[in-house]
Fold DS13B phosphatase.
Amino acid sequence: MGVTHVLNAAHGTAYSHGGQDFYGATIDYYGVPAHDLPSFDISQFFFSAAQFIHNALNTPGDSFFTKLRKMPECVRERSTMPHTRDSSSPTSSAGSRAAYETPALSDLQRLFWFRGGSDNHVDQVWPNIYLGDAWAARSKTTLQSLNITHILNAADGPYSINTGAKYYKDLQIEYYGVEAFDDPSFDLSIFFYDAANFIGKALNTSGGKVFVHCAMGVSRSASLVLAFLMIHENMTLVDALKTVSAHRDICPNSGFLSQLRDLDIKLNEERKGTRECATKEL
């Protein structure tokens, strides 16, 4: 058949255990973690799936194969948007930090329209923090070449990226698994602080380098890296999004982004309270 692209509309479910690592480097893979339930909103993937198919068909000599599977909830309208940011994009500079207010969900989603990162198997998105996919997680050669010392698997579990600490026992890697599902209804926020503390501990270890991954490195794992930057690096959500997106194309699903937005509101209120106390003491 000469297939070069695969769209899996049941990615990460109990019925599908494929992925980029299953097909190898010769196949361009896109997974959509959809469930065949009347209540499941598959419309959120229409544009991104259409864009992937369109790109495949416009690649010279390429053949495309769609499997009954699913891909990450990033509506890739951004592929058709300009590659520059406009003045209406939410900002959070140092000078405006005191007046910062968490943007609306729709404004945060607009930040993903302006692509500036990459879609490699793994990218360094912050000093000694690497964000990537399942292929990189299973490539011990890649992990060794990057001198990875810690791994945070945001798609842990028997029906996802079931590596676990035993898989890395010959690499002297400290492992932490989060059994999360890339579904807007999943509460990822319960892992924000534990994951952030694990990353922070890794970075404070001599020579520490942490690899954070899920299936594709765009939603679950990206959300946990964003939470780390907000909790431990005192970044606003806007700054964290821009920081990571500058190095890797990410797109947390709408539910995760909403949970990060709630975290941003909470942390922003705490910063305001700290500033008010400092002002009263002057």
